[in-house]
Design brief:
Elements lengths: L6 E5 L15 H19 L4 E7 L7 E7 L4 E5 L11 H12 L7 E5 L6 H9 L2 E6 L6 E2 L1 H8 L12
Parallel strand pairs: 4-5, 5-6
Antiparallel strand pairs: 1-2, 2-3, 3-4, 6-7
Length: about 170
Amino acid sequence: MAQQEPVIEQVPFGSRFDYPADRPLTPYERERRELLARYGRFARERERVITSYLIRPARAADQLVVELYDTTNSELVVTCATLQRAGGAGVWYAIGTLADLARFLPSPTRYILVLPAEPSSDLDGLCAIRSIMPVWPVDGTDTFTSHQDQARRSEPPYYPNGEPSL
């Protein structure tokens, strides 16, 4: 008899459970995993609690993998090592992965797409209509930013009692 409810198992972040050991990593997958590790370090440095999940949907043989879930901020994080939309490992695939995994996670959950570089305004717009926040590394470091972060930094400070005198 098939299971009636999804089975969701929490596992430590960084577990390597999604690919057979005998299959070599492609250059894309190697870059994607490095991006994931960098974002994991970024989250931990900010004292966020991160985890992973294995999900077996009801009546399904396949297992889904949530590689990074930030429990501190309720964020589902998916990485994509390219800014290209199409293809087996493009942004469309990553957006589909977010949609698929989100069905099994608590609500409300924010959706984070980690990219290798700043997205174009068109790609940023695609993410915006899907309620996804793209983030990317700053100058090859383990610090990440988004257009939302950049807008906050460029806004002038607000002084409720007027600007202080010099």
